[in-house]
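We modelled the chain as a single entity of 442 amino acids. Its sequence is:
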Amino acid sequence: MTIIRSTSILAALGFLLSAPLAHAIDTAPSSTLQSAAVARSAVNGGAALGTVSLKVDEYKETDVWGRIRSGYAIPDISNSLVERHTKSYSLKPDYMARISGRASPYLFHVVQELEKRGMPTELALLPVIESAFNPQALSTASAAGLWQFVPGTGKDYNLKQNMFKDERRGVLASTDAALTYLQRLYTMFGDWQLALAAYNWGEGNVQKAIKKNQALGKPTDFESLADLMPAETRNYVPKLQAVKNIVGNPGQYNVVLPVIDNQPYFTTVDKTSDIDLAIAAQLAEMSEDEFKALNPQFNRPVITGERTKILLPQKNAEKFHVNLASWGKTLSTWTTHKITGAKESIASLASKFGTTPEVIRQANNIPAQTRLKAGSTILVPKTSSSLHSDIADNIVDSAVMALEADRGEKRSGARTQRFKTKAVASSKSRVSRNTNSRRKHR
């Protein structure tokens, strides 16, 4: 399957989390750190992936950046593209610091998962290239999340995509899927640089390029195949190498990376019933933006499903449990409604469920000047009859929403406006005549 990922890093800059205070990190050369900590295993399963064999409990690092450096295992490349991208990143230290701050809630988890699988830890830097560590990033090819999965590949790796959530954006699910995919690609090509090229370009395209060079008696390593690749893929591995160089020795490039503590930032919290996103954030004593940064997969204002987990910072998880125990009110104010015909307009639905058209549009991401087609399922406020019921799993899995241009209402609105204008003019005329009449009889 051909996979195109072209997310603009600049577009992702709008999504900024509160970065930790920036401090200079240890700038020991990466080669020194690697020689002290990196071990290539030629015996165990880790070697089958060309990776490292370090155990989690062997780490003495206090900073996640040091932990990443310690696990570098992909052979370096050095060429003009690497030099160009390294210079480009190093000339934007504030930009690198912002991306690093944005990465801070996620990076420990990604590194830990890489270590569990015995994979090179510089792969934790790949979201810098893919999404600038913005879980809400969406490319022109509809690739989404930190790891930029297109819809089809997301489904291949069991990432649920429905009206209520898109697991391509979920931190846990997308990271697990991305690492599984990268492992599969490494097994296919036996080379991490080619695996990375396939992650960006698609394994079929890389296989074709290999066969073409083989037929010509040429080498089939990444750099030998680069001329056959599109520009994005040709620059993909050099960009990762550039980020790897800077993280390996930030002082050399006058870059200061915010400290990211070598400990979990978040924990998982089970929920047993539907809960509004706003209420979950309130119980955790977090802003909605902070909550969404850890739980970006939820597309609607209600989080559905008994087995759905949410992520919270350690300290906020404790507050969540305490506040939940004393809440005493309904946790969800939303239910679903299926559109049966054209007569059910957003305005009529708002009246039926005691809300406004704007609330319904916002909750369901319905653009202005569009209307719902019959068969669509939407969120509406709960009524007294549905106050204590959750949205059924089969509705969550099958709900769809189809829209069409609201031309009919626009014409009707225009006629109504013309009628109102005539009525107002007529009324003004009557008022004027009555006023003049009264003046004449004074």
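As a brief sanity check on the tokenised model: Residues 407-440 form the longest helix (34 residues). Residues 1-48, 50-59, 409-442 have pLDDT under 50 and may be disordered.
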